[in-house]
């Protein structure tokens, strides 16, 4: 969920295309491209990529939400033309383009648990990816569900105000996946992806939002045949999305948005850990939010940098959020 007292939230993103959000699908394609020539004897050269996750699909006022329904549509378009190795050195590769259309539905009850409104959510992740000479694919990515979201009311510490939420997301391997294909929209593995989101209003007309995630990946016992492997498992990771924005006239928020991902454990192939192969990526760019009452419109741009063991490029995210039960008084307070 993501914003607004009439409700809110967004998720992640992510599609396995990746979102497990967008960007990652491209990552998977790039790394498979590098590994497709590997043989069993060379399996140690293959780096199992992280699945697609919410990198930049949520942004301003992310921790603000309230009882009721929230429905939103996210369009995430990314393009990568280079990939970074374990030392951070980049090399040009055929352009990889991905488009994701994430549909997110969430609901919060008026009742409370631990003094927080609670509810579930579900995310559908249709997408299309063109991975250069590796081919292209379109269809549904993995289903994302959360049986429990907890959203707390606004807390005040002097003049500082904040709203916060915890969410327990799970990625179910239901998306398009074929072992004979070098390009897939699913990671063919189960993932747990809980997160904590908070929005702080440090001063009048200013906000900063942070969504901090943990990611755990299960084993894929049927990796693409081109990898010549029996099993793969991506490492655990920590990542976050963050913003700093200022309220302008007409309920427009404008500022900076960014994200950062760091792999914290080694990935594995055929049950053997690959040392010294962590993934890393950062991004920053401008963004804006227009609060129209029952609707919120977002636009975010990201330029990636500091990539390690993954592709690097640019991303644009457009998002429309509908809050059908929202009252005029629930609009984002400046």
Description:
With 334 residues, the chain is mainly beta. The protein has one domain (23-330): monomeric porin ompg (Porin). The protein has 1 helix and 19 strands. It has one helix at residues 23-35, and strands at residues 68-84, 90-108, 112-113, 116-124, 126-131, 136-140, 143-152, 155-157, 160-172, 191-201, 206-217, 232-233, 237-248, 252-263, 268-269, 272-273, 280-291, 295-308, 310-322. It starts with 22 loop residues before the first helix and ends in a 12-residue tail after the last strand. Residues 3-44 have low confidence and may be disordered.
Global geometry: globular
Oligomeric state of shown chains? single chain
Give the C-alpha Rg: 19 Å
Q: How many DSSP E strands?
A: 19
Largest sheet: 12 strands, antiparallel, barrel
* Order of secondary-structure elements: HEEEEEEEEEEEEEEEEEEE
Fold-level CATH name: Porin
Instruction: Assign the CATH superfamily.
Output: monomeric porin ompg
Please state how the strands of the largest beta sheet are arranged side by side: 1-2-4-7-9-10-11-13-14-17-18-19
